[in-house]
Design goal:
110 residues, mainly beta, 4-stranded antiparallel β-sheet, 11 strands, globular
Length: 110
């Protein structure tokens, strides 16, 4: 069983930055495929960024160049550095691995 807990959400302004964290516990973290997703008000959940089992990152077209996904295996933590934020980045952000999801952290346009 894997537990995922996101943190780091908050109010954003256009052009600002935030770093989200996802702390994993309960099972082996390294070597897992991990990802960040988001659900904006009135929209379906979408993928934001992911890392595969060897750490290779991938990004959605609308976050490429602005967001960076990274992980610290020693801390069992996944990160999402978000720069050049836009109002349309407002959403509930989730981290996930196969079969497991966190509760989400809210990013809101101020």
């Amino acid at each position: 069983h894997v537990q995922l807990v996101e943190s780091g959400g908050g109010s954003i302004q256009a052009g600002g930055s935030l770093r989200l964290s996802c702390s994993a516990s309960g099972s082996t973290y390294s070597g897992r495929c991990m990802g960040w997703f988001r659900r904006a008000p009135g929209k379906e959940r979408e993928g934001v960024a992911s890392v595969d089992h060897d750490g290779t990152p991938a990004y959605a077209e609308n976050t490429k160049g602005r967001f960076t996904i990274s992980q610290d295996n020693a801390k069992n933590t996944l990160y999402l550095q978000m720069n050049s934020l836009k109002s349309e980045d407002t959403a509930l952000y989730y981290c996930a691995t196969v079969n497991y999801w966190g509760q989400g952290t809210q990013v809101t346009d101020s």
